[in-house]
């Protein structure tokens, strides 16, 4: 089904959102909307503001300027202490780039149980939910192990499982393929593909193959911390000049005899020759 063939609801609206670390900009003048069910990739060079933007979307940090709304209600100040805050925290979950930042419980089972317990589910409900999720994700063998003793790929799987345990509507994923071996990357791709009709995904990544395979839409951040483009991911990925300007791919030239070779580097590299 094409995006135009289904009725969508607005999840987020950002209007002129900026964030500064002291006097240094991390995100500048961001304005865009996110509709229910979208799969959006945020791409840009290291330091362009991808992670900061996700933290703003998760209300971990407030914007220095501009307005951010969730389900039509403005997110600001003490709003997250009331009913809106509970609805927001039940609806939105963040998977950090480094799972060690996120994992803190003595066992994997406890890690997955923590969120549902905070939602007020009974012990039996929590046990059933956690066991079903462990089985669904194929990580039941990890349930009694301490997270600190897991491999980096196993930690990433547990971090993702821990946020899925609260059954959020929106998943914010920061560089989700970091630390994953090829088999685990396939696991992640299949998971996102399987949930695509159930969740809204916003993924910060420099992995352009992930953008091509999983995202319908791409938002490109430039090195000035602003938005360079926002559009269908297939069109964005075909725009070599845009990707070069944003420092997402790079190229260099060298001469072999009378022929100059120009190489573009990255998952969608090209090799041009000019005499």
Strand and helix layout:
Blueprint: E1 10-21, E2 24-35, E3 39-43, H1 50-57, E4 65-70, E5 73-74, H2 83-91, E6 92-95, H3 108-118, H4 123-137, H5 152-164, E7 170-174, H6 182-195, E8 200-204, H7 208-214, E9 217-221, E10 227-232, H8 233-238, H9 240-245, E11 250-256, E12 259-265, E13 271-274
Parallel strand pairs: 3-8, 3-9, 6-7, 7-8
Antiparallel strand pairs: 1-2, 1-4, 4-5, 9-10, 11-12, 12-13
In short:
By secondary structure, this protein is α/β, with parallel strands linked by helices. It has nine helices and 13 strands. The protein is globular.
Quote the CATH topology.
Rossmann fold
- The tally of beta strands, per DSSP, is 13
What's the SSE pattern? EEEHEEHEHHHEHEHEEHHEEE
What portion of residues belong to β-strands? 25-35%
Q: What's the average pLDDT?
A: 87
CATH class: Alpha Beta
What is the straight-line distance between the termini? Answer: 46 Å
What ranges have pLDDT less than 50 throughout 5 or more consecutive residues? 1-7, 252-256, 259-275
Query: Helix count?
Result: 9
Number of domains: 1
Biggest sheet strand order reads 6-7-8-3-9-10
Q: In terms of structural class, how would the helical and strand content be classed?
A: alpha/beta
| CA gyration radius, whole angstroms | 20 Å
CATH superfamily: P-loop containing nucleotide triphosphate hydrolases
CATH architecture: 3-Layer(aba) Sandwich
Sheet of most strands: 6 strands, mixed
